[in-house]
Fold this sequence. Notes:
This protein is of the alpha+beta class. The chain has 5 domains: 8-104, Zinc finger, CHC2-typedomain (DNA Primase, Chain A); 112-241, DNA primase DNAg catalytic core, N-terminal domain; 250-373, Dna Topoisomerase Vi A Subunit, Chain: A, domain 2; 382-453, no CATH class; 458-568, DNAb Helicase, Chain A. Helices cover 55% and strands 10% of the residues. The protein contains 28 helices and 16 strands. It has a 5-stranded antiparallel beta sheet. The chain has a 5-stranded mixed beta sheet with strand order 13-12-14-15-16, with helices on both faces. Strands 6-9-10-11 form a 4-stranded antiparallel beta sheet, with helices on one face. Helix 11 (269-277) links the parallel strand 12 (262-266) and strand 13. Helix 1 (8-16) packs parallel to helix 4 (83-93) and helix 21 packs across helix 22 (478-488). The protein is elongated. The protein starts with 7 loop residues before the first helix and ends with a helix. Mean pLDDT is 84; it is low at 1-6.
Amino acid sequence: MAFNRFNNDIAEDVLKHADIVRVVGTYLNLTKQGKNYKAICPFHDDTSPSLTISPEKQMFKCFACGTGGKAIYFVQKIEHISYNEAIKKVADISDYHPQGIEQFAKPKQVDEKKEELIKCLHDLNLYYQFALNTPDGKEGIDYFDSRNLDSSIRSKYKLGFAPKDGKATIDFLKKKGYSVKTIEDTGIAKMLSVGNYRDMNEGRVTFPICDIDGNVIGFSARRLKDDDTAKYMNTPETYLFHKTNNLYNIHIAKDAAKLKGFIYVCEGFMDVYALGKIGIDAAVATMGTALTSEHIQILKGLNVEIRLCLDGDLPGQKAMMKIARDLNRAGVSFRVVDNQGSSKDPDEILNQDGEEALKEYLNRLVGHTDFALNYYLRSNPLKTSEEKKMLLKEFLPILLRINSQIELDSYLRKLEKITGFDVESIRELVKKAKANDYNVSNPASYREVFQNFHPEREALQKLVTAERELLYQMGQNKAAVSFYEQKIGGFYDDIYRQIANFMVEYAETHDDMDINGVIVLVESSDLENRDELLNDLTSLLIETHPNKCDEKLLNNLLDTIDGEKKRITDEDILESSLEGKSELEKARIISEFRKRKMAKR
């Protein structure tokens, strides 16, 4: 058979062994519709799925731009390569390699150093896999069994065991013809003395790390005994291995992701295995590093939905928040597995609760907005009003896009709980932003919308008003003094708290309350701020408060005081207290503020 660019026989032979769904799915995100599959057409500016892929007819057709044909033509067009090169590409995707097919491949430059390292690591991993099934590797088998990693999992992910005699491993590679320099360059050689090398993974179970094409480029090796060595030994940065641009299991996950339309990003290898056990091969794991921009570009290139599935503890949630922001900025479609505060990872869920529980967990997906709000509700990391306003700044564009009043109200209530800002204050902010064509990236727009937005000061005013009302009632009624001692214990306002202490002292030695008597107590004291206390006390003496001092009033005041305390921070109170004060007075207030902060510790 003569192989040339006009030879239809070889093309027909390859097409007989090719699956159009697998070929197109290597490049596009497919959605099943009846007997066929649909996808966004890559050959014109398509906004809705116009490309139809027919498994029955083994062809593709776009009913918008008219492009259609067989698998080889699709690859030729999408990769912008020759027809003969596309024949070879389809054969590779289909794992079909007829004699002479290599003649259709485009000659490529060979990186001899890379090729030699890949061969060396391939042979090394075969050696590790063999060693696992020798008597020396029994404790490795026992470890894998304890983690519910049976022989099928070990084979699928090529898990192995590095023999305890690390020198023997080096000798094996030398006998295979690899130089000491090549072995060193793989990252597994540990030099004990000049010319004396051992395998750094010796006595550990091994997890090979592959590049996107399935070539072994490094290892993670776990110790089997509790000793003072590192729990995991990872291949250092080498000519082949860079953990910042490699994701564990990407070589298996990439094809599965194309067919499924999504890929899970997990915390560790065991989580990838857990998902694999329930039929989800579209899963990768980071390798002890945060998700980098290189990782994000790899994931973005898959053109599928990213599903973040990281630990439910606070560090894991913080990491997920950062990743979510980075994915958002990169324009990547993603959702987050909502762990609802659980600290269990997928491996634990599968082993403890079973397959259905894990499937339910993985399908509990929320968008970035809901995840972020839930994160702030659970962790409450915002301490100052400025931090809370910055959160509103971040969410305003999202709130402005919501058309459903019910959905908007739901978000506003969550933001009220997170920030402590009154829901109506936030609602007015949204209205103002809408009226001013709010633009999050425009500082002038931010200043315009947030000008005079001070709900924390309103909360502080409500708090001070309620405390003053209770202070007035304490000056008239011993029942109010008892209520203060039992339910309040101390006012936020320094002056009111000191006056309240004098009232408590007066109540202990008198049958009835009399503000005049409290004034005498203050006058006879030697406090530095005696004049300030007397100013407020004499004001209380001449004020008239129409409210009757009864149980209902006292409980209402308690509700207001407790509620408004939750809405404000010490920093809010300090900021408000400094307003309009002289520099000397500001210094005194700040000094008092610091003393109070220290006293709380």
